[in-house]
Design brief:
The protein contains 4 helices and 7 strands, in the order ααββαβββββα. The protein is an alpha+beta fold and about 150 residues long. It has one domain: Nuclear Transport Factor 2, Chain: A, CATH 3.10.450.50. Strands 1, 2, 3, 4, 5, 6 and 7 form a 7-stranded mixed sheet that branches. Strand 4 and strand 5 form a beta hairpin. Helix 1 runs antiparallel to helix 2 and helix 2 runs antiparallel to helix 3.
């Protein structure tokens, strides 16, 4: 189980805007992410390069945690709000829920291996749909599968 101190250190880097540093210091070499129904992106170095590309595409990115981070065994769940300001000054806000699993191979290092994100864009719905960001259907949300 990752310690609360380790998770808070990770959160602090993200909220400070050091997105690449958060990946570098807290993700295992074999880390992978998957956003919504997209294909997994595998490898810490690949994830860092992808993050650098996202950062280069925007004038400013702000992140804040919404509510507490939940830790259950080797799983960490956080709700985030990201605001992206484009080079033209337009902004877009995205909220996401991230599930992060601790790598068994990482030893004492945090070594997150995966992030499953369900995001919804707030504001420009047409652009969000074009970018593949949409509200998940009820059957795509694990808890909703059990509700009728």
């Amino acid at each position: 189980m990752p310690s609360r101190q380790t998770v808070e250190a990770f959160v602090a880097l993200v909220e400070a805007g050091d997105y690449v540093g958060a990946i570098e210091h807290f993700y295992a070499p074999d880390a992978s992410t998957r956003e919504n129904t997209g294909e997994p992106v595998i490898g810490r170095d690949v994830l860092m390069a992808k993050e650098r590309g996202v950062m280069a595409a925007f004038r400013k990115i702000e992140a804040s945690r919404i509510g507490p981070v939940l830790i259950e065994g080797d799983t960490v769940t956080a709700r985030w709000k990201f605001t992206f300001t484009g080079t033209d000054g337009s902004s877009r806000t995205l909220e996401e829920i991230a599930w992060q699993l601790r790598s068994k191979s990482a030893g004492k290092r945090a070594g997150f291996v995966g992030v499953e994100q369900i995001g919804s864009a707030l504001g420009n719905d047409e652009q969000a749909e074009a970018d593949g960001q949409r509200e998940p259907a009820p059957e795509e949300i694990p808890a909703a599968r059990h509700r009728k």
